[in-house]
Amino acid sequence: VLTTVAASKNQLDARVPDLSDYFASVQNDPSKAVPAEILSKAQGLVIMRNYKAGFIVGVSGGRGVAIVKNQAGSWGPVSFLKAGEESFGFQAGAQRSDMILALMNKDGISLLTNPNLKLGVDVRATAGPKSVGDQANLKTDDTPVLVYGDTRGLFGGAAIEGGGLFPDESDNTDYYGQKLSPSDILIGGKVEAT
């Protein structure tokens, strides 16, 4: 059992830098980067790797991490997430989409602490501004979630989607060695940032 837990912890230790490297690569591409002003105002970030495939009915899933700023304005510890979504409508193909969600206020943070909330259904989300001119036309205080993405592959057709971000309880337990909720990790101060 200890060998299995150690292997799982090693995989999770590798996932955090992989997602951090993805974030760094996005930030190095001016056409995709999350503007510095948005990052400074964001109260939290979610970095997800999602996969989607389907014909008529699509199913997707993904894994990622979330971090939230503490009261001092520093980034706290990571919480592991998984995503699940079904979409209906005419569609065909496969797609990988890596996403960064900038959580701009308490409503955005609630996506992490209340697994019953769905992005775009219960909590409003919009494509994030890419440039200074775009930012001038956006009130980030009123927008809970700004979405930045990097989509690869082909996925055609209109679809009505409803999905959520869910805590990955087994990954969080393996990583921290104890059962913790996302609230415990992200805003409860139960663990330290590593």
Mean of the pLDDT scores?
Answer: 75
Number of helices: 6
How many individual β-strands?
5
Range of helix content: 25-40%
Morphology call: globular
Order of helices and strands: HHEEHEHEEHH
Derived from helix and strand composition plus strand pairing, the structural class reads alpha+beta
Low-confidence stretches: 1-5, 53-59, 86-94, 152-162
Beta-strand percentage range: 35-45%
Radius of gyration: 17 Å
State the end-to-end CA separation.
25 Å
What oligomeric state do these chains adopt? single chain
Biggest sheet, open or closed, and with what strands and sense? Answer: 5 strands, mixed
Task: List strands and helices in order, with pairings.
Blueprint lengths: L1 H26 L8 H6 L2 E25 L10 E25 L2 H8 L11 E3 L4 H5 L8 E12 L3 E8 L1 H8 L5 H5 L8
Parallel strand pairs: 3-4
Antiparallel strand pairs: 1-2, 2-4, 2-5
Description:
The protein is α+β, with helices and mostly antiparallel strands and 194 residues long. It has 6 helices and 5 strands, in the order ααββαβαββαα. Strands 1, 2, 3, 4 and 5 form a 5-stranded mixed beta sheet that branches. Residues 1-5, 53-59, 86-94 and 152-162 have low confidence and may be disordered.
